[in-house]
Write a structure and sequence with these properties.
mainly alpha, two-stranded antiparallel sheet, 15 helices, 4 strands, 46% helix
């Protein structure tokens, strides 16, 4: 069902217009008191995510909880103890540090914290440890892991959470708009009139870099900087994390590799369509050793006030310090082309077919580099791409994102042509 919902959303995104069919009407199901309490609890811990002490009662509740004293209420206690060990050793991401899903230390913490949340035996224990983590974990690590576990844990997978651009607007909304909102709040909304009893403010937002005119690709900012596109991509990676084993969580039944290819195929196709509509021509080819002609100035800022990294025109990946990693990336590409051409993967003495259209799921696992991908990891982000592209919420904003995935999808097109 999760796969079906995702495909419907992707189809609507790719079509860019009203669907030509209507989904069947169903009678609404109303939540009972228990469900509404869970909903309220989750909204509480997600509120003001970058303000650690905004709610004294919640803070006191979190401080009263100790994982060490509650092992009996967890499944797979050894996994829970792994997180406690990381915490006691001070090996977690610092609260002020920028979180990246492509740094090994950060991934280690994500996996460990997910195991704690997922293995709580009941909802009470689950919320206890979530409330504790809310005040002791890097806010972006906490938000990402909580969003992931809310999808994969059965007793909370129906809870509706706010869209990511409401929980963490810094990754979606231009800095000038956030600054304007902060000034209004600090000044007590002086001069703002009430509408239906509420002080209502509309802050216009221009697309990033509207005053810079860096390159022709800025003409497409209406689609690349659409918060709905960024939210779709971010949520996709909550549903199908590249670090998560498939079988324990049912991702293998969803054909996660095929869906990985599908969503990138549709996003690249839509971007290509918009380029043609704006007389920009084909998507430029990505090459590890050649400069990227179109730069990108994000105009976003972190919650700490630091600006997101700018990628200038003619950005060059092939520079001192990167030569080794680029060679490794090219070697990975070559190995994937080889297994496509030979039509099978020889992994640990086991021959895995890669020759029929049904095997596209196997190819997708290889391209994503997930644990179901037979150790031919295709994770090119390590050490190479700008930090801006390491954040799923921001990467679709950059023209380089579409050039990179066009190159990645050539493996799929090669496979389908065999």
């Amino acid at each position: 069902m999760r796969c079906l919902r995702l495909l419907v959303v992707i189809f609507a995104f790719a079509a860019g217009e009203d669907l030509l069919f209507k989904l069947p009407e169903v009678d609404p199901t109303y939540g009972d008191a228990e469900y509404l309490k869970k909903e309220k609890d989750i909204l509480l811990v997600l509120k003001y995510i970058h303000q650690p002490n905004w709610n004294a009662d919640l803070h006191a509740f979190a401080d009263s909880y100790s994982i060490n004293d509650d092992y009996e209420n967890y499944n797979n206690v050894d996994l829970v103890k792994e997180f406690v060990h990381l915490y006691n050793q001070g090996r977690l991401v610092k609260k002020s540090e920028q979180f990246s899903l492509y740094k090994p230390q950060h991934i280690e913490e994500v996996k460990a914290l997910f195991n704690v949340f997922y293995n709580a035996k009941d909802y009470k224990t689950f919320f206890n440890v979530v409330a504790w983590a809310r005040f002791h974990i890097n806010p972006m690590v906490f938000t990402y892991v909580l969003g992931t576990v809310l999808i994969h844990r059965k007793d909370v997978d129906t809870i509706i959470t706010p869209p990511p651009y409401e929980v963490c607007p810094y990754s979606f909304i231009n800095a000038e708009v956030i600054k304007a909102a902060q000034r209004l709040k600090m000044q007590g909304f002086i001069g703002v009139e009430k509408v239906d009893g509420l002080k209502t403010v509309v802050i216009p937002m221009n697309y990033t870099g509207w005053y810079l005119h860096l390159n022709p690709d800025q003409k497409l900012s209406y689609i690349t900087e659409d918060v709905g596109v960024s939210a779709l991509y971010y949520n996709f990676h909550l549903d199908y994390p590249h670090w998560m084993q498939g079988k324990p969580y049912g991702l293998d039944k969803d054909r996660r590799g095929e869906i990985y290819i599908l969503i990138h195929q549709l996003m690249v196709a839509r971007y290509y369509l918009e380029r043609l509509s704006n007389d920009l021509g084909h998507i430029p080819n990505f090459n590890w050793r050649e400069p990227i002609k179109s730069g990108y100035f994000p105009g976003l800022m972190y919650s700490t006030g630091k600006q997101f990294t700018t990628r200038h025109n003619n950005y060059n990946l092939y520079k001192e310090g990167n030569h080794k990693f680029i060679q490794e990336a090219e070697d990975r590409e070559r190995r994937i082309r080889e297994v496509i051409d030979q039509g099978f993967i020889n992994y640990g003495g086991k021959v895995v077919p890669l020759s029929s259209p049904d095997d596209v799921n196997t190819l997708g696992n290889l391209l994503q580099g997930n644990p179901d991908g037979f150790d031919l990891h295709h994770n090119f982000h390590d050490h190479l791409l700008p930090p801006f592209l390491e954040n799923y919420a921001t990467s679709p904003r950059d023209p380089m994102f579409y050039q990179f995935y066009k190159r990645l999808l050539k493996n799929y097109w090669r496979f389908m042509s065999m």
